[in-house]
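Minimal example, chain plus V47.
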Amino acid sequence: MVKAAQPTLKSIRDKVESGERLSLEDGLFLYQPTTPLQEVGELANLVRERINGNAGYYNINTHLNATNICVYRCTFCAFRSDLRSPKGYKMSDEQVLERGKEAIDNGCTELHIVGGLHHQMKYEWYVDLVRILHEAYPDLHLKAWTSVEINWFKHLLKGKKSYKDILQDLIVAGLGSMPGGGAEIFHPEVRQKICEHKSDAQQWIEIHRVAHNLGIKTNCTMLYGHIENSFHRIDHLIRLRNLQDETGGLQTFIPLAFHPENTGLSHIKKPSVLMDLRTMAISRLMLDNIPHIKAYWIMLGIGTAQAALAYGADDIDGTVRHELIYHDAGATTPEMLTVDNIRQLIIEAGREPIERDTLYRKVERDPNDYSKWHVAEKIEAKFVTS
Ligand code: V47
């Protein structure tokens, strides 16, 4: 067998320019500290501009974490609580509906709903939460429950419902799409150490596959900067790329930088800005079939998120309200941005701010009444493949 030649920046540039897929070895080469970051960034920017032009997407959204009580003890999580801890909470239906009202009053198009796996709450509570919100606020897109929760629901139901049945119940209740959390690092060498009890890579991928087959779009993430190495990261990206080849249902990839404060891994240093930018750029280069790469400003910090718009990212997430997962883990970013703030930071980064809804359709607003909006055309990503 002829051994493949070692990648070089030139061989990778040739592949990127001709739209040829990068290999595992290419990804590992790009992660070497001796591979100049500016050049990795320049290649990612080329792909980003080819797919998404000069757009800098954002949305107007609110988070809802209806409980932090969780049966799992993921070592990286600062948000979870035990049932009897003073920190533990579970919102009532009235509080949930109040959050929906706050979202509508502030012109939000999306409610991002995730939370702990509260062992005393039945499956119906999780489905009804979607239902009551959808009935009260039908125009609010509910991006709800990660595949970790879907897998937990199957456990709660003792296997009496399949993933498909559960997702169908949620669609009837008003589910609009699914967030990308819970992916962490797929490789078992890492996954078993940081979140051994929760759904494994095969289950996470299968649930997204089932969602896509039912017409539900989903996001995907990777938690980096803890105990994983570059092989685990590239392996993770390739698993997502393979799923996307099969279903085409992944909309956005969000690389999530580990925040160590108040976690079981607090001895680990937070990844550097250079690592954040390199991971952003490599994600754009490896995930040649996923339309959007998100620089989640809450997690990266505003300056790094702005820079990331030149390192592969085309989206910055939303104005956000009530974010807890990162703020519990020491994030020093503000709790929210105004629309003017978010547009200004995109403009400062040299990009054109475009408001999108969760499904990447342009949003147009009534200039005299900001809370009135409608969706315009679907935003199409332009892929080049050889
Ligand atoms: O799955 C938890 C991560 C995720 C920490 O889909 C941590 O649009 C760093 O998935 N340090 C939840 N990361 C957040 C998430 C997300 C965020 C924004 C947008 C979307 C989307 C999804 O947060 C978890 C985990 O990977 N996480 N704790 C921590 N200490």
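The longest strand covers residues 369-378. The mean pLDDT is 95.
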